[in-house]
């Protein structure tokens, strides 16, 4: 029986399918953003009283970037971290976070991928991405939110520690998972 | 519906029947944007305080529970105090000088600038809570899609919000298991700590990436992307009260802007 | 026209050293309920993914042979088209529910097919009612119990108005009562809507009594098909392919071989109990021989 000769009109005989991103991408990006937010929230430590808000969310930003490239790093890092901000009650930071962490993921992914994932490229990518993130937060707090030079400066050491720890963990995770579960990283 | 769930993080939203709950989420998003813009445009500490008071009245009308409000305000208050304390220390400009500690000069204008900035940041932070206290994540995503966010991006956002509590719970259960085995998660050197965290994160990430695989098969199986002219079961509709609320929101931005920039009132 | 027609189907994944399906032929009639049993890695999930075209359209592999569902060659129709014929439910409900309310979950498929809003509303109502979740419309899927999640996944498939449901280890995370509830729901759909059902399981407990036919699978091949009574009459065949026989069959087997009791070939608890009580009342003062 030839299926094309079906008499009932097929419900999906639309002239054009939607130009959406692939289901694989939607699922992967959604999951990575959720992981970023979950890990940010799980590792969130409200330091008292002079330090703000320390977390390990950067590890997932770097993991997304190193394992799946700059687009995943930018979108999942930015959206996931911003969502965590909103849910933790720091919604005022969300727009800044979107840009800062998104940029961090983008740069880390871009540099590590152009260096074909070699160790130096990974380290350079994390350092450059981290530097961008720290600068973005500092500039945004100082000039955009206008919280004062002192308050903006107080965040810098926390962010440096986050990048150091998050970068180490992110690179470690990517290495471990690429070694042990290579099929999972085929995007 | 409990406020604090097992994973120790809070969904700020709680169900309710206040007018803030009933207003179309798009109007609330616009309100957040406009009031934020207004907070940036105002430079007078009194008008900013008035704005903050207005936002607090709205927060009160949202009838969020005390624990929720405290959870949110805890952050804002710490933030505001830090600004007021740190600003004068790094800004020695102006006179009169109130106090001098070695190289640090505390001047009156710097203190006022700190207070002004703190109140502004308070406005920017609290205006979010009006939206977050009264809008479910589902309505938020729906509104964003209706406002022009691409459907597939909206879906990815919905997926991430949907899986967030699941992953939080996974992380917590693994943490508990590791603790029960005697692993000290938050002790030791930087390197040791990161190694401990990797032990927690690897199983979490591996299972999450497996979910992503099944998820994409499920999306395929339910005809995701089959047609460009996709329909929607529920579409937010602007009702009369939504339109009224929107005009109030617009007036809230336009009137002060008119007074400040056209009439020159120092707001 | 059969619901499913597979002829000499072989599937091999890239990097695999053997075929996941090895010239499998299987026919399922309309309105028939087939239970596919096999151990881990027998190729059951691969077979499921063939029924709505996930293989070969989505999952990368080499496919030989022919698969038709309701007369449509799966290689020549999109997954979206086939999804209106075959609804597929995966093992873990958690990973196939991605919306923020039960209602959106069920509406998602029809929405993608650009169906009218009124029609979607009617389908959502019907699907949720069918699976017993009416009134949970606004609840987030994550707040539902394991059984409810599984039923919601079925409702999400039902709203596409399929003629066949394929369930890959649907009772994986359910207790025996949850399993029977789920199978009863499917039995109801089969009775009322002539739904064709293909259920894949790793053990036959509870599932066998509902099926019209059982197919045993091992290492990519279908090694045996037959009516449940016939297949279960030989528990060793199940053990041989790594599937634990239902406890009831083991009981009947032990009664016959080790105690010298009557040979019982029923597979439901009620029927077995009836047979035993018949036998017992026939010979008063039965002696129990301890092994």
Would you kindly provide a written description of the structure presented here, covering whatever features stand out?
The complex is a heterotrimer of chains A (187), B (267) and C (291). With 187 residues, chain A is an all-alpha fold. Chain A has one domain (23-177): Arp2/3 complex 21 kDa subunit ARPC3, CATH 1.10.1760. Chain A contains 6 helices and 2 strands; from the N terminus they run αββααααα. Chain B is built from 9 helices and 2 strands; from the N terminus they run ααααββααααα. The longest helix of chain B has 32 residues, at 190-221. Chain B is flat. Chain C has 2 domains: 4-245, P-loop containing nucleotide triphosphate hydrolases (Rossmann fold, 3-Layer(aba) Sandwich); 246-291, no CATH class. The longest helix of chain C has 18 residues, at 176-193. Chain C starts with a strand and ends in a 9-residue tail after the last helix. The chains are: A mainly alpha (187), B mainly alpha (267), C alpha/beta (291). Chains in contact: A-B, A-C, B-C. At the A-B interface, α1, α3 and α6 of A face α4, α5, α7 and α8 of B.
Question: Distance between the terminal alpha carbons of chain A, to the nearest Å?
Answer: 38 Å
Q: What would you report as the Rg of chain A, rounded to the nearest angstrom?
A: 20 Å
Strand content of chain B: under 5%
Domains of chain B, number: 2
- Uncertain segments of chain B: 1-9
Number of strands of chain A: 2
Question: What is the architecture of chain A at the second tier of CATH?
Answer: Orthogonal Bundle
Q: How would you characterize the largest beta sheet of chain A? A: 2 strands, antiparallel
* Number of helices in the DSSP assignment of chain A: 6
Question: What class do helices, strands and sheet pairing of chain A give?
Answer: mainly alpha
The structural domain count of chain A equals 1
> How would you classify the quaternary structure?
heterotrimer
What is the molecular shape of chain B? flat
Tell me the CATH topology of chain A: Arp2/3 complex 21 kDa subunit ARPC3
Query: What is the N-to-C order of secondary-structure elements of chain A (H for helix, E for strand)?
Result: HEEHHHHH
Query: How many angstroms does the end-to-end distance of chain B come to?
Result: 42 Å
Number of helices of chain B: 9
Tell me the total number of β-strands of chain B.
2
Mean pLDDT of chain A: 83
Give the integer mean of the pLDDT values of chain B: 85
